[in-house]
Design brief:
single chain, 842 residues, alpha+beta, 4 domains, six-stranded mixed beta barrel, elongated
Length: 842
């Protein structure tokens, strides 16, 4: 029977409006909006990938092979299941332009197509013309189209000539839109499209050259994609052929979007946690102001259940309002910014109303509101009616009854389980949650420490009344220190962590990697070209080091006779073809972690040395058997050893190294890394390109810049999420400052009565705010630094260096934010009449 009474009382309380709940609503709405907006953008991209999957892929299905064409059996099967087909060859090469001061070269990703390309979609060219016309060329020279950025880099205009290998091409037009660009994944060079037949005499597709052949298929409308995929895998399981269909036309993009979206949602949860602190503070402040009403109700016979249910229903209704506002904002912002977001995406996105991210954000909002309001609401049950008029809520026991503690623990478990389920990454989610809870605990302890330190520093303030008043206020019985430290500190902690991560990544990109990385990667070096290649680079005094290795590519298809994906899951080693090599002797600077290297004259069954870290992740042991498909031939190799492989040095590194006899007779090329002084890089490239036009040179600095651009984009996106968290913390800070305005009015009135000048009082308020803000900033630097260290060390597996400049910015920013908010809410107390304020407290 208590619920109807509580409902009527709650409805009457709500008639008083939203006074005291503006910060409550803002914090909840902002946190929900951030999560909803990120989820909506992710859903829009996923919808675009799903709806345009066939166009992105270039067909309903694609069969991919590594540096070989399909054999007659594979071609026959493709003809049987499809209505139309197109063959596309992808590889890297150097586009060369003759100039007055010598040749200019630039790395390009070449797409060699047949007459059927494209099966779906239409490339857009400038000047506008059909692709077939552009590739026809003129005057007996085949045509080509290329990305505008590559043409600008080489100084090319339509009608100019350039070379790929030994073949000359005429640039017919600039490629402004490539419908199937999203399916290619990460690329080191801009696009050039030519006809495959024009490359027959270019010397670029010799045996052993690194290229991929993709067969795009148009399937009958009623085709069963699952059955066709299973049939392809069963029929060609041991040929290295890989199936992909329109349901996942750009798997790399989809994985990236999912992971980045999940990470940003976790950043949004950090903001929601900050907002939860504000929600809890607002509820506590509101209930403190309602002690008279609660006392009256208890005196009239209202029980604990009625009191709890009344304010639970009232705050629940306001929570739903805040969540609704956040959902509207989160759904509207991506729609309003759709043109800007779409222009920056390499894939189509369907910006419309997507329900799933809104439901996800609403669930997060409701769980957070429940979690952070249950505790202050529960404390009202322990306050007796006889003491309610003496600020009983502030004197209530710190811990509520056991049933509320259990309910809080269950809500926290549900929130964590929901976050794990929605993000799909339990490791990152639990670490994020642990970081948030750890930061809250550290900040709460720091708040108590600041209060004790302020009390203990009283002797230092003798003769300094402004400092004494500020320290007395900080060390007093109020909750100002805790509110500022927790609300602002958590927001600054997230910002500090993001800043340290961002700074470390930028330093790694700009400073650390070039010191250990080679100048160039040279690929597709034919075996008969190796003596001349080595003679040029090894005899150059500006070259400090040269490393070479034979290079093949293969697909890891089986582990101990079982399909590799069944054993290794979605590990990157089994997702596609991987580079592999052979070596007779243990290479220099190679450390075995387990097992033994084969003898120099070993000629038995194939053996393989596997990268130790990747082997541990997959679950491999010495003596296990792996099956690697190379050029359609299966090689069953026994794991003889594990070795350390450091891919971060940008040098030559292979997951799998086999004994030479295992790959005997397989056509292959060589790769080489050259470490040279910067001034020598251009002459080395010029001489080698003139002598061996087929060799492709990848400048490591350009590759690092490409990766750096991607990482910086991720950091920028994360920084926006952190900024939203900081904004929420600032709202909580404003709420705390507004809630303390009455106390500051009384304090100012007393000080004025005792003869203090307005200037001294204002300086005291300012000093108090600045000290609390700086304290929050210092704690945030420590908490954020620890968080950044954890992410960089355990998630990104890179070194962490503390950046003092970033830390100083956080401390100064925290002090400035608190100072400004404190001063803004000190103006009215300073202007109030002491007599009026003191009379109101009688």
């Amino acid at each position: 029977m208590s619920l109807p009474v509580a409902f009527r009382l709650a409805a009457r309380e709500l008639r008083g409006g939203l006074r005291g709940f503006r910060v409550f609503l803002a914090c909840l709405a902002l946190g929900v909006a951030a999560i909803a907006a990120v989820g909506s953008v992710r859903a829009a991209i996923q919808a675009g990938l799903s709806e345009q999957g066939a166009v992105i892929l270039g067909g309903d299905a694609e069969l991919r092979l590594t540096y070989r064409d399909a054999n007659p059996a594979e071609l026959a099967w493709m003809r049987d299941i499809s209505t139309d087909r197109s063959k596309v060859i992808e590889f890297r090469s150097m586009a060369v332009v003759a100039g007055p001061d010598g040749d200019e070269r630039a790395l390009t990703q070449v797409k060699a197509v047949d007459n059927a390309y494209p099966l779906l979609g239409t490339p857009e060219l400038d000047p506008a013309m059909p692709l077939a016309q552009a590739l026809d060329g003129r005057g007996g020279t085949p045509g080509a189209v290329m990305a505008p950025v590559l043409a600008a880099r080489l100084g090319l205009e339509p009608g100019d000539s350039f070379r790929l290998g030994t073949q000359a091409f005429t640039l017919s037009a600039l490629l402004t839109f490539e419908p199937d660009a999203g399916s290619a994944g990460f690329s080191l060079g801009p696009r050039t499209i030519v006809r495959a037949e024009a490359l027959e005499t270019s010397g670029l597709l010799a045996p052993g050259t690194l290229f991929e052949t993709n067969y795009r298929l148009i399937l009958p409308p009623a085709s069963d994609l699952d059955a066709l995929k299973q049939g392809a895998q069963q029929r060609f399981a041991d040929s290295g052929l890989r199936w992909r269909d329109a349901r996942n036309g750009a798997p790399g993009v989809a994985r990236f979007v999912d992971r980045l979206g999940a990470f940003l949602v976790l950043v949004g949860l950090s903001g929601l946690a900050v907002g939860g602190v504000g929600v809890s503070a607002a509820v506590r402040s509101y209930l403190s102001a309602k002690t008279g009403v609660i006392a009256t109700l208890r005196t009239l016979g209202a029980g604990r259940a009625v009191i709890f249910q009344t304010y639970f229903l009232q705050i629940g209704a306001l929570s739903l309002l805040g969540i609704a506002i956040g959902l509207v904002l989160g759904a509207s912002l991506p729609l309003l910014l759709a043109p800007i977001i779409s222009a920056s995406l390499p894939v189509p996105a369907d910006f419309s109303l997507h329900l799933s991210p809104l439901v996800e954000a609403a669930i997060y909002g409701m769980l957070t509101a429940l979690l952070f309001t249950l505790w202050p609401l529960a404390r009202t049950e322990d306050v007796r009616a006889a003491t309610l008029f003496r600020d009983a809520l502030g004197q209530a026991k710190l811990l509520p009854r056991p049933r509320y503690l259990l309910a809080t623990a269950l809500l926290l478990a549900v929130l964590l389980g929901t976050a794990v389920a929605f993000s799909g990454n339990a490791f990152l989610t639990l670490w994020t949650a642990a970081g948030i809870m750890g930061a809250l605990l550290v900040l709460a302890l720091a708040a108590q420490g600041v209060r004790h330190l302020a009390r203990a520093s009283g002797a230092l303030s003798r003769g300094r009344p402004v400092l004494r008043w500020a320290l007395s206020a900080i060390g007093g019985p109020g909750e100002a220190a805790a509110s500022v430290m927790i609300s602002l500190g958590l927001g600054l902690s997230v910002l500090a962590a993001v800043g340290q991560i961002d700074g470390n990544l930028r330093n790694a990109i700009d400073g650390e990697l070039p010191e250990v990385a080679p100048s160039y990667f040279f690929v597709d070096i034919q075996q008969d070209q190796m003596p001349g290649f080595l003679d040029r680079v090894e005899n150059d005094p500006a070259v400090s080091r040269v490393a070479t290795a034979p290079m093949l590519r293969g697909v890891l298809t089986r582990i101990n006779g079982q399909p590799a994906r069944d054993v290794a899951g979605n590990h990157w080693v089994v997702r596609g073809d991987r580079g592999l090599t052979y070596a007779q002797d243990l290479p220099d600077n190679t450390t075995l972690t387990a097992g033994e290297w084969w003898a120099p004259d070993y000629d038995g069954p194939p053996l393989v040395s596997f990268a130790a870290e990747e082997a541990e992740e997959i679950g491999l042991n010495l003596g296990d058997t792996i099956t690697v498909n190379v050029l359609g031939r299966d090689i069953d190799a026994t794991i003889a050893s594990f070795r350390e492989v450091d891919f971060s040095t940008m040098g030559i590194g292979f997951v799998m190294t086999l004994n030479p006899a295992a790959l005997q007779g397989a056509p292959h090329s060589f790769i080489s890394t050259v470490y040279a002084e910067e001034a020598a890089e251009a002459p080395i490239l010029r001489d080698l390109a003139q002598a061996y036009p087929n060799i492709t040179a990848i400048r490591v600095r350009d590759a690092i810049d490409q990766v750096g651009t991607l990482l910086i984009a991720i950091a920028n996106a994360t920084r926006w999420g952190a900024a939203a968290t900081l904004l929420t913390g600032l709202l909580v800070l404003i709420g705390a400052a507004a809630a303390g305005e009455r106390a500051r009015s009384f304090e100012a009135a007393l000080l004025k009565t005792l003869g203090a000048s307005r200037g001294r009082i204002l300086r005291s308020f300012a000093l108090r705010s600045a000290l609390l803000g700086a304290g929050a900033g210092i704690v945030a630097v420590i908490a954020g630094g620890l968080g950044a260290w954890g992410v960089l060390t355990f998630v990104m597996e890179t070194d962490f260096t503390f950046l003092p400049g970033n830390a100083l910015t956080i401390v100064i920013g925290g002090g400035a934010l608190t100072l400004v908010s404190g001063l803004v809410f000190a103006l009215r107390p300073m202007a109030a009449s002491p007599a009026r304020v003191l009379r109101s407290r009688e």
